[in-house]
Amino acid sequence: MKKKGLLLIMFAAFILVLAACTTSTGNEGSDGENSGSDSEAEATEENGSGGEKVLRMNNGEEPTSLNPPIGFDSVSWNVLNNLMEGLTRLGKDDTPQPAIAEDWEVSEDGKTYTFHLRDDANWSNGDPVTAEHFVYAWKQLLNPETGSSAAFLGYFIEGGEAYNSGDGSAEDVAVKAVDEKTFEVTLSAPTGYFLHVVTNPAFFPVNKEVAEDNPEWHSEADSFVSNGPFKLESWQHDQEMVFAKNEEYWDKDTVNLDKVHWAMVSEVNTEYQMFESDELDVTEIPSSMADQLIDGDNVVIEEQAGLYFYRFNVTQEPFQNQKIRKAFALAINQEDIVNYVTKNKEEAAKAFVSPGFTAPSGEDFRDVNGDLVNFDPEEAKQLLEEGMEEEGYDELPPVTLTYNTDDQHKAIAETMQNMFSENLGVDVELANTEWNVFLEDQKSLNMQFSRSSFIFDYGDPVNFLESFITDSSMNRTGWSNEEYDELISQAKQETDEQKRWETMYEAEKILAEEMPIFPIHYYNQVYIYKDYVKDIVRHPVGYLELKWADIQQ
């Protein structure tokens, strides 16, 4: 078994790269199935005969959107990160490398970045990639009418938050095209990890001329233009996408694959069957087969910066009470869940920020702040009694735990249901809904108690912690704490790194004390590859990288 540990990035110039969005696990939402197309059969023949190199993968479901500011989830990232490219791109070592920008300068105060775009950076239709395309795309990201879930990432930019919140205008956003190939951005405060931030697909450029001519340019293969390693050759919605090598890409000589065929199969069991019948070259491991497959020779386990967790809605009974929230959290044995339910060698989460973030001291954030949420059924019972007494409950109001439709989410929810019964004497109802409905209900605070996930968007612990400030679009709990908000504000502006990290340690402890959420496990990535598949890179942030991938038979 191959094991690739999470790569830690030293603080010499950058902070650890780890990047996140809400994920449905990449498997929910699509009913599309693939029983093996003619194109897949041809791909097998071509790879075996020394013809075209064709990689066959599964994306799980239809991308939410291929418009960069909208496709803010894992199934969209898989596609966008290989069709397009931003100013910087994560290298094989997970650090930001020059991409569309061949170099840049940073002002003495650390706030203004001047990026110089490559002369040979073109779109797949032959148009040059210009600085104006970045100005157009980044303002679209922040435009409140766009409704982008990723807009908060643009708050680093001077004027970005004001524009997105309706208190400013597009003209106030500090991005400009100095000339055709020079792009300048001014930040509201020095941000040492900004080069990591702009690797996120939300910051990819948009061809302004194409978009203004056809606002739906991103919806079909024949209108889609890319500036990355591949172009979109065909797209059968909910069934299959086909990439072809982009001959207009500035670094095309690095790209080994001729094509990538993406199936859209939502069930991992079906995906594995397709892998076994040579219809796919890569597969996840079904939970039901983890015991027999996890230690196989072709299994690759890579850590991922993210958290599987549950949210309490503090605006609904009984979770307005802090002690009742903590009781439910401490009644869950995370170790049992990873050992006997998920079984993919995940690490049980005893706090919120995942391992892999290196502090100025050289220590890991997780080691410094330690375990904050430990299984303790006796304390859980005591907290439940105290909480019920505070609220005047003779009987606990009914509790419904909601998860989005998926076999593994169901298994975890059923295990938790049993733990609540055994450790608290509380009967919890279960409910499930499809991903799109689930996500909207969670955002609207329509659910009492629901599962969640977070994959880091950029390389700093504050990325997770900022999600739970008051009124954040990522909060989805109704929880608000002025001290917490102030600590996160300090963490995003403090230039003394040691002080900045101290504020983040304090903020995480407040989360554990007030418990609007509670953790289950940190994420990892587990896949089986065919012997001939080489050099697929999966960054800890969740970006899949096929730029260097190869088929060697």
UniProtKB/TrEMBL annotation:
<feature type="region of interest" description="Disordered">
    <location>
        <begin position="25"/>
        <end position="68"/>
    </location>
</feature>
<protein>
    <submittedName>
        <fullName>Oligopeptide ABC transporter substrate-binding protein</fullName>
    </submittedName>
</protein>
<dbReference type="GO" id="GO:0015833">
    <property type="term" value="P:peptide transport"/>
</dbReference>
<comment type="similarity">
    <text>Belongs to the bacterial solute-binding protein 5 family.</text>
</comment>
<keyword id="KW-0653">Protein transport</keyword>
<dbReference type="GO" id="GO:0043190">
    <property type="term" value="C:ATP-binding cassette (ABC) transporter complex"/>
</dbReference>
<dbReference type="InterPro" id="IPR000914">
    <property type="entry name" value="SBP_5_dom"/>
</dbReference>
<dbReference type="InterPro" id="IPR039424">
    <property type="entry name" value="SBP_5"/>
</dbReference>
<keyword id="KW-0732">Signal</keyword>
<feature type="signal peptide">
    <location>
        <begin position="1"/>
        <end position="19"/>
    </location>
</feature>
<keyword id="KW-0564">Palmitate</keyword>
<keyword id="KW-0449">Lipoprotein</keyword>
<keyword id="KW-0813">Transport</keyword>
<dbReference type="Pfam" id="PF00496">
    <property type="entry name" value="SBP_bac_5"/>
</dbReference>
<dbReference type="InterPro" id="IPR023765">
    <property type="entry name" value="SBP_5_CS"/>
</dbReference>
<dbReference type="InterPro" id="IPR030678">
    <property type="entry name" value="Peptide/Ni-bd"/>
</dbReference>
<dbReference type="GO" id="GO:1904680">
    <property type="term" value="F:peptide transmembrane transporter activity"/>
</dbReference>
<feature type="domain" description="Solute-binding protein family 5">
    <location>
        <begin position="95"/>
        <end position="473"/>
    </location>
</feature>
<dbReference type="GO" id="GO:0030288">
    <property type="term" value="C:outer membrane-bounded periplasmic space"/>
</dbReference>
<feature type="compositionally biased region" description="Low complexity">
    <location>
        <begin position="26"/>
        <end position="38"/>
    </location>
</feature>
<keyword id="KW-0571">Peptide transport</keyword>
